[in-house]
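Q: Hi! First time asking for a complex rather than a single chain. Here are the components, and I think there are two in total. Is that enough to go on?
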Amino acid sequence: VTDGAPSAVERRVADLAAAVPRVDAGAASAAQVRSDGLLKPPGSLGAVEVLGARLAAVACAVPPPVPAAPAVVVAAADHGVHAQGVTPWPQSVTASMVGAFLAGTASVNAVAAAVGARVVVLDVGCAGEVPDHPRLRRARVRRGTADLSAGPAMTREEAAGAVLAGAGLAEELVAAGVDLLVLGDMGIANTTAAACLLAACTGRPAADVTGPGAGADAAMLAHKTALVTAALDRHRLDPADPLGVLAAVGGLEHAALVGVALSGAADGVPVVLDGVNTVAAALVARAFAPDVVGALVAGHRSPEPGASVGLGALGLDPVLDLGLRLGEGTGGLLAVPVLAAAARVLTDVGAIADLAGGA
Amino acid sequence: VTDGAPSAVERRVADLAAAVPRVDAGAASAAQVRSDGLLKPPGSLGAVEVLGARLAAVACAVPPPVPAAPAVVVAAADHGVHAQGVTPWPQSVTASMVGAFLAGTASVNAVAAAVGARVVVLDVGCAGEVPDHPRLRRARVRRGTADLSAGPAMTREEAAGAVLAGAGLAEELVAAGVDLLVLGDMGIANTTAAACLLAACTGRPAADVTGPGAGADAAMLAHKTALVTAALDRHRLDPADPLGVLAAVGGLEHAALVGVALSGAADGVPVVLDGVNTVAAALVARAFAPDVVGALVAGHRSPEPGASVGLGALGLDPVLDLGLRLGEGTGGLLAVPVLAAAARVLTDVGAIADLAGGA
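A: Yes, that's all I need. Here is the structure of the assembled complex.
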């Protein structure tokens, strides 16, 4: 698929993918056995018990650790396809919103504060300037992608560099004590790239995975869908070559989130998905390393059609279904307390065998 | 409806109901206007925006206060109808579970810890002994109800006393700084009483509102449903006389939760519902004071059929749908961080008019 031997950067991505461990099915079933013996009717905590078993599998521990230091990584980048009129928002909004994330005035900051999570922003390819801030990591691979409707969005080297930027940040955060990662995204026009990634990874037509994003009207959505169809025809994407898919039609933030997911999974940390952009990144991550899915939790169901298609392909049931379609990691963050509760139940609740006066 | 003039206790319940204020529709619409002007596409936070408007209406304030000191009130009591074989669990489990709530080894304790909520247990009518504990409030009206299938579950005076016990506890908690109340219940056999309350308040047949509760099998469920049908025939309940309904077929914990809901609403504090028992209490509370519904939030959708019937009658969409059917307040607690996020968004997020480089 590549021209010649893989580069050093590509080999590092392959090493990252190879570090993702097998899902610990033994821990998951041991967690379910433990759950069934707790002081409650078996199964009466529903999906919370299923999530507890998932956390046990990710951590290879029963009970799993209670997430105490969650962080949302908001990967931000711009998109050359913006020039094709696929969104009503100007491209400059990407950098402006990064400024808001740093100033603490965006929705992700409010939701993160509500659930006790840290916000970290990764500029992996904004076109505009963003100010220095302790919450910002600068890792620009390029100032936005090229127009995917006219040619490749970026080179394989650039895509690999963005994957490694995300992985490096995740590794740094986990080393600093972060024990749960939420994926967030910011990038005006990025739902167009996400639709291409979703179509490439699932084989579904553009119409099934293209949605209005942050406010396309019916005419703009029709144009966007036609553009995605044409891009899929042009690029002839091979789902077995995820780096090639990212380079052809992806965003730098999608690539970075692939890296966050792979690194989190490799480190045994749960990775919570947000909306359609993070679901697209998860599908690409799965193409690199199928076992990454064992570390993923679907935080919520976005009304973007591609989100449900992608979650279905990943086999993930979302924790929440609240009609959120903002991105930034907001919906993923809202699932964090449910995960904390799932781990706490397995940790704190007594055994039903100890029930005084039991049947 | 009553025999003669209402008693002093009944008059106090009527005063409590009269203290529930009108829903502040102005604050709700002002909150939605504010939400539409925040730094995000209008509506992109979906149900979180709707919840923010609801919190604004309850508090009569835009932005509404961010819930910082939530508490779950777990009202516990026993049921004479237990003798009719409507549950596989022995009656002694009620007091045993109260012991677990006090020891901190139950699911409600784990979930409350995960979301930063306080647990308060109200013994309003357990049959067995429970130990002293700072988390326990003793307000036994009687040691469990009488068998609703053979006669009234309790007197009107007793029902009113239980309502006032719940209201008094809510008032005490709010005076101590609690700013959000979650309703929780414990009472072996209480889903039978809840089904009677749901049927009385909605006019639906027993089969629509009777479920397996904490583990009835098909034969037991059929018996339970027939018993509810017979009880409805026997008692000829008048939904316009909620105290009479409670006295005939309710539980002491249902009555207490009616009091918590009415008192919370009167104090401008949001009241979060859990499963079918709390939904039944909410319907009774609405019969006392229709405006109480403005202060209610449906925390989750229990799979018990009566829960969805009741939420539909109340016009409430649940925040979560995770298949929880435990009670204790567990599902209501899981919605608390979503409410905190809804209030925080209205409080912390900047204005879209300030967006640098905007359209």
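A: Chain A touches chain B through 63 residues (CB under 8 Å). Let me know if you'd like any chain examined more closely.
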